[in-house]
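Title: Comparing notes on inverse folding

I've been comparing how different people in this forum approach sequence design from structure. To keep things fair, I'm posting one structure and asking everyone to reply with a full sequence. Here's the target:
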């Protein structure tokens, strides 16, 4: 029961286009996500080529196009080279605008982890997808041609999860991003959504650490065969364009609340400097924990410890629980508590109705309950936000925020379930 609640909590909906509440005319498609426990990268499994094989790609919100190492052992009879005179080639990032025989479309590929740039060429191959089973009774497989970057060497893979062959670029401004290509290929709105949660196993979804949907919802969850729509409350906010980083997903965070308290934040940090691209807030699930510029981080921690103090005082008056006790911090976190003292606080948490963290947008609020604490090691629950330093490029990077150790996280899930009821 506990996990049925917890796994619905982090849903992050990103509208790639600004198309207003456009309903999908065709069923969307869905892929399972996998998360590696050491790199914490999310991988999407794509069935491609002829004969069909599964290729795992690291999900990269800021990537211009999907690419993989297609030399050395990759054979597909449906693979085609994209001509350098094609419109697709003109949409890719090119090192030099040469278009000599044999008219290969030479392009640059970016590794989002090491930030290195490699050479490759543009190819296309068949991708076979399943329609979203929540949208249609029987998932229907269908295929489309998708343009990929083909890396010239496998050196470019360094830093990426060992199980991956490349990167699934989902950049918001690129016509070659996987989201844009699927939208055109399957004629549905240019929308994708990720649903991230701890590793779960059930008869409907088997084992997964999340899903990525293209083309729209409904985003229904299954837990032991029971579908759950009730927790599906989506918050919408327009995306901002950072002129220096057009592929990335910036949002307009106006303020942050921690357990109901608004943090004092220098407004300059919250806006994007159009000349330098510095500042603002972006969403990037490659970052495991939300990262805050130092002054925001300090204000965050202060508000959080004040909340703990308030709880301790309230409990001293009302109940006979041990106080929430601070313990030695576990890096990269700086503020940690004895998790057994937190679990015992259930009833007082019930009384505290404010969400753990709220990101306040111009016309909406994204309430996040519970994900403020992370079990960093056995018995130690830390405030799961990370100091991003004094002069980061982006002031706030909203990361995946999730548990890296599902087995241990169960402790926390129980606590959270208690808090809910
Ligand atoms: C943006 O950054 C530039 C260079 O640091 C600076 O001169 C300018 O004043 C900044 N703009 C704003 C609106 O802060
Ligand atoms: C818990 O903390 C409160 C507030 O700091 C204090 O008044 C109380 O005595 C503490 N209770 C215990 C059992 O330490
Ligand atoms: C977010 O939390 C605040 C404070 O509890 C509440 O007033 C508001 O309705 C919540 N918003 C949403 C969208 O859940």
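Reply #1:
Here's my take.
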């Amino acid at each position: 029961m506990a996990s049925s609640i917890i796994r619905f909590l982090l849903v992050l909906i990103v509208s790639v286009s600004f198309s207003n509440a456009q309903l999908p005319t065709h069923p969307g498609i869905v892929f399972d996500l996998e998360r590696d426990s050491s790199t914490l990268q999310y991988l999407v499994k794509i069935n491609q080529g002829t004969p069909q094989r599964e290729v795992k790609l690291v999900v990269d919100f800021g990537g211009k196009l999907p690419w993989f190492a297609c030399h050395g052992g990759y054979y597909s009879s449906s693979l085609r080279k994209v001509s350098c005179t094609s419109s697709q080639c003109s949409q890719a990032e090119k090192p030099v605008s040469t278009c000599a025989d044999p008219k290969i479309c030479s392009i640059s590929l970016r590794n989002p982890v090491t930030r290195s740039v490699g050479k490759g060429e543009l190819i296309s191959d068949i991708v076979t997808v399943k329609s979203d089973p929540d949208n249609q009774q029987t998932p229907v497989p269908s295929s489309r041609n998708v343009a990929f970057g083909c890396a010239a060497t496998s050196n470019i893979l360094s830093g990426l999860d060992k199980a991956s062959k490349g990167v699934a670029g989902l950049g918001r401004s690129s016509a070659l991003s996987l989201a844009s290509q699927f939208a055109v290929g399957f004629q549905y709105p240019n929308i994708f959504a990720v649903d991230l949660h701890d590793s779960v196993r059930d008869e409907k979804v088997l084992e997964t650490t999340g899903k990525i949907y293209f083309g729209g919802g409904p985003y229904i969850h299954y837990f032991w065969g029971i579908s759950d729509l009730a927790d599906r409350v989506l918050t919408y906010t327009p995306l901002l364009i950072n002129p220096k980083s057009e592929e990335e997903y910036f949002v307009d965070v106006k303020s942050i609340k921690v357990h109901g308290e608004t943090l004092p934040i220098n407004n300059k940090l919250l806006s994007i400097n159009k000349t330098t691209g510095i500042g603002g807030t972006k969403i990037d699930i490659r970052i495991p924990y939300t990262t805050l510029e130092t002054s925001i981080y300090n204000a965050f921690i202060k508000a959080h410890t004040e909340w703990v103090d308030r709880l301790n005082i309230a409990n001293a008056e009302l109940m006979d629980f041990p106080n929430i006790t601070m313990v030695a911090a576990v890096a990269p976190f700086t503020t940690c508590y004895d998790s057994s003292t937190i679990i015992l606080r259930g009833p007082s948490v019930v009384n505290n109705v404010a969400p753990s963290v709220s990101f306040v947008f111009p016309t909406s609020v994204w309430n996040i309950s519970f994900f403020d604490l992370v079990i960093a090691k056995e018995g130690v629950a830390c405030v799961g936000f990370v100091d991003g330093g004094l002069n980061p490029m982006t002031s706030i990077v909203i990361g995946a925020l999730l548990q890296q150790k599902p087995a241990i996280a169960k402790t926390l899930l129980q606590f959270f379930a208690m808090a809910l009821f």
